[in-house]
Amino acid sequence: MSQLSTGVPETGTRYPISFIIPTFNRSAVLMECLKKLEDQTFADFEVIVVDDGSTDSTQAEMERYMLQDPLRIRYYRQQNSGPARARNLGVAQALAPICILIGDDIMVSPDFTAVHLRFHAENPDVRFVGLGLTRWSESGQKVTPLMRWLDESGVQFAYNDLLQGHKPNWKHFYTSNLSLKTELLRQNPFDERFNKAMMEDIELGYRLEAQHKLEVGFLPEAYAEHIHPTDFRKTCRRAYGVGHASLLFERLWPESVQASSHNLFYRTTREVLCRNSWLFLRPITWFADVITSVWCPNPLLKPILAYHSALGRRSADSSRT
User: Fold this and answer.
1) Residue of 186, 219, 22 lying closest to 95 (CA atoms)
2) 3-class DSSP string for the chain
3) With contact defined as beta carbons under 8 Å apart, do 223 and 133 qualify?
4) Least confident of 93-102, 221-230, 232-241, 303-312
5) How many CB atoms lie within 10 A of CB 293?
6) CB-based contacts of 111: which residues, under 8 Å, 6+ apart?
7) Mean predicted lDDT score pLDDT of the chain
8) Residue spans in the chain of domains classed CATH 3.90.550.10
């Protein structure tokens, strides 16, 4: 592990808030993320950036940025190990009693920090977690119909349910916009067996709810925008990764598994596709990709993504045997 720092006080000095930002090969968008933090109405916070083994210009950009001394910031590098380990490292170094977890592609609004801090001042118990609202950014990317569908359908995030009044729980433990007591995170670190950006946050949310009676407060005023352009092929690869990670999650917490609502025909069809992915799933995915480029949403989206998730789960199961 290596460290660069600027503007950091002597050990033991505490801020109200520590931002924890893992990053990997996104130097340009990371710089935009940090610039948004410069504009906060509440400015008494530190920023800890943990570089998860980037091979792009991240280190050079961070060195250049920190020479300007715009934020109280520390920068750490680790070998590529995934965001779970990166966040654990950041939390271990935090000087504040509250940590805000965001991604390197999250652009926060000016009152973002103040809203999170106010929530914790009003809810001092360690089990309270603040969940802000994140939407696609309309600048810095083209928001496609597919991206809007991912947002509105709840396939990726279920913010629409929360905006309609649903009570948030462990399933909404989204580390793109989340604040917790540092003490809680240190006593309950992210499980580093989740070595990709898949399910590591949801697993911790489930664990905290099961063991500490987690209380999640939804804070739509803690608004942020997400710059992470995607397409149908990338979405399928993400579904595969989520399926792969979900098997570990279910083996850790078998009581979390709910009975499938799919009928026998659907389950059987999915199993056939998974066993013959080269013959069936790949051409169907290609066809769905073409259709989605001109017609979105369409009836193929959810089934194809479910099949890719099942294939990832099957791969994870095979690798253990």
Assistant:
1) 186
2) CEEEEECCCCCCCCCCEEEEEEECCCHHHHHHHHHHHHCCCCCCEEEEEEECCCCCCHHHHHHHHHHCCCCCEEEEECCCCCHHHHHHHHHHHCCCCEEEEECCCEEECCCHHHHHHHHHHHCCCCCEEEEEEEEECCCCCCCCHHHHHHHHHCCCCCHHHHHCCCCCCHHHCCCCEEEEEHHHHHHCCCCCCCCCCCCHHHHHHHHHHHHHCCEEEEEEEEEEEECCCCCHHHHHHHHHHHHHHHHHHHHHCHHHCCCCCCCHHHHHHHHHHHHCHHHHHHHHHHHHHHHHHHCCCCCCHHHHHHHHHHHHHHHHHHHCC
3) yes
4) 303-312
5) 13
6) 40, 41, 42, 221, 222
7) 90
8) 2-226
8 A C-beta contact, residue 313 and residue 247: yes
* Predicted confidence (pLDDT) at residue 267 exceeds the cutoff of 60: no
Assess contact for 226 and 176: CB atoms under 8 A.
yes
Positive or negative CA dihedral for 44, 99, 223, 7?
A: positive
Query: What's the pTM?
Result: 0.92
Cβ atoms within 10 A of the Cβ of 284, count?
16
What's the rounded Cα separation, in Å, for the pair 219 and 288?
Answer: 36
Whether CATH 3.90.550.10 fits 2-226:
yes
- Neighbouring CB atoms inside 10 A of 52's CB total 25
